Amino acid sequence: MNTFGNKLKLSTFGESHGTAIGGIIDGLPAGIKVDMEFIQNELDKRRPGGKYATSRKESDKVEILSGIYDGFTTGCPVGFIIANTSQHSKDYDNIKDLFRPGHADYTYFAKFGIRDHRGGGRSSARESACRVAGGAFAALLLAEFGISVQSCVTQVGDIKAKDIDFDFANSSEIFWADQSNQDSAKELILNTKNDNDSLGATVLTIIKDAPAGLGEVLYNKLDAALASAMMGINGVKGVEIGDGIDVANMLGSSNNDCMNKDGFITNHCGGILGGISNGNDIVIKSHFKPTPSIFKAQPTINLDGNEVICELRGRHDPCIGVRGSVVATAMARLVIADMLLLNASANLNNLKRIYE
Amino acid sequence: MNTFGNKLKLSTFGESHGTAIGGIIDGLPAGIKVDMEFIQNELDKRRPGGKYATSRKESDKVEILSGIYDGFTTGCPVGFIIANTSQHSKDYDNIKDLFRPGHADYTYFAKFGIRDHRGGGRSSARESACRVAGGAFAALLLAEFGISVQSCVTQVGDIKAKDIDFDFANSSEIFWADQSNQDSAKELILNTKNDNDSLGATVLTIIKDAPAGLGEVLYNKLDAALASAMMGINGVKGVEIGDGIDVANMLGSSNNDCMNKDGFITNHCGGILGGISNGNDIVIKSHFKPTPSIFKAQPTINLDGNEVICELRGRHDPCIGVRGSVVATAMARLVIADMLLLNASANLNNLKRIYE
Amino acid sequence: MNTFGNKLKLSTFGESHGTAIGGIIDGLPAGIKVDMEFIQNELDKRRPGGKYATSRKESDKVEILSGIYDGFTTGCPVGFIIANTSQHSKDYDNIKDLFRPGHADYTYFAKFGIRDHRGGGRSSARESACRVAGGAFAALLLAEFGISVQSCVTQVGDIKAKDIDFDFANSSEIFWADQSNQDSAKELILNTKNDNDSLGATVLTIIKDAPAGLGEVLYNKLDAALASAMMGINGVKGVEIGDGIDVANMLGSSNNDCMNKDGFITNHCGGILGGISNGNDIVIKSHFKPTPSIFKAQPTINLDGNEVICELRGRHDPCIGVRGSVVATAMARLVIADMLLLNASANLNNLKRIYE
Amino acid sequence: MNTFGNKLKLSTFGESHGTAIGGIIDGLPAGIKVDMEFIQNELDKRRPGGKYATSRKESDKVEILSGIYDGFTTGCPVGFIIANTSQHSKDYDNIKDLFRPGHADYTYFAKFGIRDHRGGGRSSARESACRVAGGAFAALLLAEFGISVQSCVTQVGDIKAKDIDFDFANSSEIFWADQSNQDSAKELILNTKNDNDSLGATVLTIIKDAPAGLGEVLYNKLDAALASAMMGINGVKGVEIGDGIDVANMLGSSNNDCMNKDGFITNHCGGILGGISNGNDIVIKSHFKPTPSIFKAQPTINLDGNEVICELRGRHDPCIGVRGSVVATAMARLVIADMLLLNASANLNNLKRIYE
Which parts of the sequence bind NADP(+) (chains A, B, C, D) (predicted)? Predict the structure, then answer.
């Protein structure tokens, strides 16, 4: 369904070329001061535009319709909409009756028997603006407890960041982690774009200062929830926690995180043990496939099953992982905020603090 | 919480050293013929024992308490229990007051303020026997529609399977995919065990003959659900779908799966586009960390925060990924069966077939 | 939370005096033809205005933002908003710091520590316009299977309808069931209004032509879901199914519904046995309390706990049960549509019809 | 599905004549001292036996399989089973192929196409023993906060309790509220039983000392949840909160609960305003139909649609409302405990008390 989360729920609606997209954020505790500038700023980070993204022009102004009174959350659901203003639906007329390679065209049609082909309809990454809005509200809650979430791009094609510098990434047009080779990364993106092709990418997300104890036993573990959140982002095909896939080639004696008086000595586990946070940095890597929309001719079939050539028009990101990093931050915020709320009733001591 | 799935739900209970573990499978359609031998056989695959697994002896007989009449499912929940018979709780007396590295001891204590230390309590992989039972029931449903799920081990430490042969893996003591280097894999496991250490592993899972159209829009996508299912298995730290993490270094033109009259020409996407199955093989890789229980001395702290040395006794798998492959199959079965049921009401045509 | 339903979900947001109210309808099967005139017409039935309702003027135009393509549902969520245009927030300035008797003022404040006092905020019956919109979409689905839902008012104060005539009720300004004493009912409402007081009412809802088999085993029974739906409507304090509270004074021999070749001979059970529909009319009665907003002076306390007199201004229904009957229809539609979808996977035969 | 509750979940399984019934209680906070004697005592109240109940002999010993360590809850799910020992399945041979009037036989068959006819299978009130076990655990949590729930029978047939005395009811064999006419009530039950017939009943349930603020906005209101809980008990056909159905004939000026410095002056609303508790007694009435199993010949049809006469054997309660009162208490406990947990994250102040 179109709802994410258990106690903090984000429900979204909207297609790429409809009137508006939007959503409902339900379960936000009452009493959170709402910083609208911060929320719009998060939307702006993901907003289309610039050399390294689609040239679709959207202001992406988020309009809040409910749930806030006198500048504070009321405990009631926050409804919001983001207008679609720059739809060029005609760009999609020629793909109305065929299935674009790498897209959800075929699968939506197989499932529903009907497909809104304009801009990819519901399957478009445009919906992720709603995720960013939801994540921004979650961030307001997290900030009350000193918890922060940040992401950066650590790989595009065969170029990898050598150092991780979140401060630099925050000011980078492509959210790149490493000042020393940002130019190479940018150049690769532009060259690939000019070659009518697209690039994959890897995004690193870190959650800082989450308390130990977050994550549910035994089927809504924190790592399982993060994996679902990240794999559910458009284009993500791999998710790693901590040492990730490298653990397959490790020994227990080198993978275990031992402790001393100051806490955990290492963080191979990426801040999660048994599905529950251990108080260390929570470390997630998400791997994005290259944008499926490319400007090369590709063989496909049409609705009648006949073979045709797909030639795309429209405006597309050369590397969806770049803006995807903003979405990764949003999803991690939603997960950790949800877990914070769920955990409130984990033990009698917590409840006694509230009700006595 | 302790429930997995939406329309087909598996809820489990039980600790490693309690009286019994068990669960409830809810949402199974009525009218499925129940092959108890098949179900027990699945349990037997995961059962402890043998050179390559823990020496804990459990018969793991699953006892069905409800939901079946005259050999068929009734539409009512299937309750089942699996007795614990070989608990050696005394093996754990010395770790009662300390946190074992790599385990959930610290995080459970942080969350709940109380911890059943015997055998790891609820966080023990023993619970996965319930997942296997649930997955076996799901398999009965899937078999009615010709859908199958299988897993094999493709990497332990630095040894990788070169070929994938599921038939061979089915008869392999370590579910190894490749006859040509099974001996090396086995030798590595035993050597590591003899060295009081443990090994990581990679498991490949393939779902065959699932129809196109499975997976929910937009926050219970098939890939997101599979990622959650796999990352939620004890010890899994990385999950990949299709080309997985390699997509970060691919071009759109090489990653897109084009189509001809016979369907998709390639399967880079691993059978899932836009979160929905496309009718091809669904391909998942799960990466297991080395068993955290090793017999080397490890520094840790006790409940009072003092530094102590952890020295383990007990019986442990040298490589949890081996038996973990059986659990991976079970989880994939649960996910795909759940999606099959959820999809039943996806469009009006489906419903008309039922109600008219 | 702010979501109703399991497979067909209505999530709503919005306060009485915010910018807009709205919601998301998720889980509608693809392929339903959307009759926008019908949907607006349902909204119009509940719309404020007229002698027997509040004089607040709202056009209640529902704007659909997503989920429909080419006139049909796409399987993607339907987002909608209904603008608030006639807020007179100043009418509420004098109650900002006190708790109105019979309203949710005190309880919202106790729960959240903050309260949007304008028009009752989220607790206002204004939200029910979203329920009516959701119910109208559910009705489109039900119509595909010949299922209908209708409601009428059968009691206001001490006046009871003697006959039940849904055709008459449909054209009655107060949805009254019985032409023979409608004038008395209207007169009572107006007299009570002129006396600055308000009236309770009883609403009868009947679901016709639902197939046998709807309702879940064992904690989402059809009757339990209907009871939750109806009791959750603002002001409802009693819900009955079939013979309702009268069963306490009946014998088994007179309450049991026996069968002959043509089906059930009687319908004491109101169409539900063991929580599952039996194919007969489903009969529900909902009892509405009098509108809490009256224009008499009432003792209460303010935020500081001091005793004050509450004197209301604003525009209010003299009898909320009248417009409540439209909401009752909507909720019953949502429940029965949800059950229709849930039931699609109840047995293997249903699934075989879909997937084979 | 077979799960009740949101944050505190009770999932159950089991049929009347299976090996055992049982369930899982998930979401109990860690650290609650478990009084097993209290829990068994609650089961004993509902246990079959005695002149006024079925003569089926069951010891109803509840066996706890998990979730408790050292006498305290661990935060992990509590699995439990209750053996079936006194099944007389042969008593049901003659009804294998026909539909008993007033029972779920027809509707289960319509839904599932298969039916466990022995003792009513899953639809039997035997399952309610699991509800009582779940409710008893909820009561342990509630007791930590001084919240209590109790029920009594206030009407059987045309005999109504004039006074409500819960102390008396606790010691009454039929949980009757009023010492002054208990003999008449008992006599009526026995006479009806001797006449091979059965009786309806009304049960009053009161929740004392629940804090203000419990209940979710806007579709999991406290009253809606209670209505669902009560209407979902076998045989309940009407549910009232506070003044209940009488509100249809009340004026706002007499129904509103005004306040003074000491709180609410009256309690017409039954402790719930806007779906949220106001701190007063929460008052619920549930109306039970007469036991459908009677020993009179009744016309019905068989699986082939032919008209036959149903003549029952077996052991049945003459008045299910009597033991139903124990179940009503259990369900109210589950609801209020669930709401207590859900409310823990309602506002930022609550969370700050926990996390700071």
Answer: 46, 51
